[in-house]
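Input record (Table S2, row 490):
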Amino acid sequence: MRPTWLSFVGLLACTGDPGSSGKRPPPEDTAEADTDTDTDADTDTGTDTGEPVVPWTQPAFAAPPLAEDLDERDDHVHFSLTPAPNTFTISDWQARTRIAVDGSSYNGSHPAPTLVAKVGDTVRVDVDNRLEDPTTIHWHGLSVPFEMDGVAWMRDPIYSGDSYAYEYTVQKPGTYWYHPHFDTEAQVDRGLYGALIVTDPDDPVVDRELVLLLDDWTEDQALPTDPDHVHGAHGAEGLWTVNGLVRPALTVTAGERIRLRLINTSNQGYLWLGGGSDDLLVIGRDQGLLARPEEVDRELMAPGDRVDLLWTPGTDTTAPALVDWPYSLHGGEALGDETPLLDVTVEGDAPAATTDDWPAADRTPTPDTEPPAFVYTFQGSAHTDDWLINGERFPDVTIQQLSLGETVVFEVRNLSSTEHPFHLHGLHMELLARDGVPPAQFADVDTVNLGLYETLRLRTTADNLGAWMAHCHILPHGDGGMMTVLEVVE
Ligand code: C2O
Ligand code: CU
Ligand code: CU
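Output record (copper (II) ion complex):
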């Protein structure tokens, strides 16, 4: 099943150039023009979906709702998630287009509720499947017992009308996310995903934390397997949303220290983040805080990736910014301009807060000396839409086995002409080297981008029993067979 767009109503009245969002008129211009050009669009979308018509003005940033904890005990959290069909609207207030998505949501909310637990907590999530199809929930980035991993491999999904209680403990603070792992491409594409945050009482203190669920939407998402429409393939970008909103406006206070938790939930959209005129201060990635923050000019977020940033706005600094640069999955220059993901206004007149007390330890990568225990070779072609690992298409795969407790080095090689985010369930990995070059510091990952013809050297400790999926997180590739199994046995 594919999502179908109920309507895509566009009045490109302003620029005639929807591709270069950097050149759109400021929000003030739009309110006036609204009255004379937009009547039809408003009527169409309003009556088709039964939703109130959203005005063509820049929306204010909104965080996803917080899931209510139904357990009173201090070391337990208990949430309830009900996936069900839902229609919601993506409004591009700049281009004056609306996409009415015939989608699905958890608890009737797009974006879905954020689940928050603290390290050591027992997490219980009751899932009541009101979809017409089977579903599961996978906890991306968390090491949980195999029967709680939410895969439909060697496990039944939750059938329509059934419920299931997931239960596990969380051991590692960080920014994680949840999504279905049954008919994954279609179900995530319809909007089923949310943030799962594991806090640590020892985390450095900030004044504010913001969760940003980033997704992109295109008309062609109705045809996600059409090889001509792979996002980023020709430098073409989808319409990015931040918590379901196109380019929202965020107000921050001078002197605040703000931790941003970014999650790329897109099916296949890459984000190449920049900070406007400033560098980004990266404080965390996949598996929690970095030993030492990194200042970067650009940060690549492949589908499934998380990045934590630190902002310290103040009268003595430029306002923070977050932009997406065009990125080509096939190498070479991508076309187009950078697109702001949101606009930030700084209020108040305090100088920037210090980051001097932010922990900054040296943690060097493990020396990369051992021969690989096994190799995963990624192969495929957008022309034939065949996506394979070691010449095999899931579920007809050779299962690689590790014994509980052993530590191995393995390689992931790309022999295809497109990039792939490699993701492993159940275990986490240290990135030892990318084409022979070690990372700037110790890198603990669960999702790692595999560049063109690149070789990644990874190290993992088999500390969790189970038959763990290892796959490309470009979901059409994963569902198309670019998936294998790494099993940990006694
Ligand atoms: Cu985020 Cu196997 O998935
Ligand atoms: Cu996962
Ligand atoms: Cu792929």
